[in-house]
Amino acid sequence: MTKKYRDLSEGNIKKQIYSLTWPMVLGMLGMVIFNLVDTFFIGKLGVKELAAIGFSFPVIMFVNSLAQGVGIGTGSLIARNIIHADHKQIKTMSTSAILLGIIIVLFFIIAGVLTIRPLFSALGAENNVLDYIYDYMSIWYFGVIFVVIPMIGNNIVRATGDTFTPGMLMVVTSIANAILDPLFIFGYGPFPQMGIKGAAFATVFARSIALIFILIVLLKREKLLTVHLESLRSILATWKDIIYIAGPSSLSMLIIPVSTAIITKIVATFGKEAVAALGVASKIEMFILMIVIALGTVVMIFTGQNLSKHKFQRIFKALNISTKFSIIWGIFIFIILLFFGNIIASLFTHDQQVIKITMKYFYIIGASYAFQGLIMLSSSAFNGLNKPYPTTVFAVIRTFILYIPLAWIGSKIFNINGVFWAGFISNIIIGIFSLKYLYKTIRKIEPDI
Is residue 449 predicted with pLDDT exceeding 60? Predict the structure, then answer.
């Protein structure tokens, strides 16, 4: 190789996990704050605008999930090759992944803009909320390129062993959004007052910064992009390898927004306040679980590199460290929500009904966050092992066999509390079984563990 990358198959495991995770946490904190800032300022506009964001959230998650799937597939592929492959091969893989992302962007811009009103009407949005949804999403869709390409690019850089650069880039993007949101939404100084449209414009402009900088890093510093690809065959071969992971991974993550959309439709029967509360709770939940999500990304990179060197003992030890932390973190967060959940919810809305429903969500589903973390870690480890299908199977079972049917039944018997109890039960069952199957899979690959 012409370039030396960080080798995670040697050295102190705890130190490596920590040094890789904290920049990821900082970056994800930036992205979560990005979403929370949007929710905070939009909440100032009123319940209808907040409900519009609640309806938009599943669709935005859908696009993000697909982008994350391609990013994960790319990251897994590069992590498994970065130590021993030629730099030219890594460059071909990286460039081919970006090209795949561009194709995805073009599809979603066209399909998304043409289906806003029929799609959200099908999700249960009423006319007085639908107009706000259209104002927001008609702008957001044209910024999809600023979501997809940085997602792929960040995963390429992380796979080289550098989580600091993507983390800082995410922080900068968040700061830009926090500055632009009030300017565009409420109209300060030379900026016009645009309301919910302003939130969409702020998002697009802030994310454009991420696109510019990640391309500079890939081109100038890492030298991992080229206009001189070897052949169409090499591009298709890379796409095949990426899609092998990205397909199941995207499907697993796409199940989340699909389930969120269905759950949103069930919750919508309890009124716009319930939908707004679900939107607020979901955004706060992203903040709560970001450290486990960051840890999961590190687990995938660590697992991929050590798999390439057949260092299964290191993989097993890293998983033990990560799962213990996830359980402790979930318990700690639930205690925080018990005492301060009301204050946290009131930061995003002054509507007492919305706050009350948000608190119910925290008290019930919050008790299962430790197990939800285990699901996330297991999924990441399976991707690092180049075995993405168990993640999809567990996601299907959790969503379509447990969560949605139980939520529908629960809503009829226990009203909205029944929906939340369905999430609680699903997290616990799948958290336990996914972790058990992960350990069984590792022992099957390496019987000596």
Answer: no
Residue 8 domain-assigned (yes or no): no
Q: How many residues in total does the chain contain?
A: 449
The dihedral built from the CA positions of residue 388, 393, 399 and 402, taken in this order, carries a sign that is: negative
Buried residues in 52-73 as b, exposed as e (16+ CB within 10 A): bbbbbbbbbbbbbbbbbbbbbb
d(CA 109, CA 16): 39
End-to-end CA distance of the chain: 32
Query: Which among 204, 200, 195, 144 has a CA at the least distance from the CA of 173?
Result: 204
Question: Which residues make Cβ contacts (< 8 Å) with residue 192, sequence separation at least 6?
Answer: none
Evaluate whether residue 5 is within a structural domain. Answer: no
How far, in Å, CA of 93 to CA of 153, rounded? 12
Q: Which domain holds residue 292?
A: 13-445
Rounded to an integer, what distance in angstroms lies between the CA atom of residue 162 and that of residue 142?
A: 30
Number of domains in the chain: 1
Residue spans of alpha helices (H) in 347-388: 352-365, 369-384
Q: Which residues of 35-50 are buried (b: 16+ CB within 10 A; e: fewer)?
A: bbbbbbbbbebbbbbb
pLDDT tens digits for range 180-230: 988 998 888 788 888 888 888 898 898 899 899 999 999 888 888 877 766
The span from the CA of 146 to the CA of 126, in Å, is 30
Here the tokens at position 215 are 């391309």
SS3 2: coil
Question: Are the C-beta atoms of 421 and 414 separated by less than 8 Å?
Answer: yes
Residue 263 lies in a domain: yes
Both structure tokens of 217: 């890093």
In this structure, are residues 281 and 260 in contact, taking their beta carbons and an 8 Å threshold? no
In a domain? residue 4: no
Closest among 49, 14, 4 to 302, alpha carbons compared = 14
> Using CA atoms, how far apart are residues 203 and 194, in angstroms rounded to an integer?
13
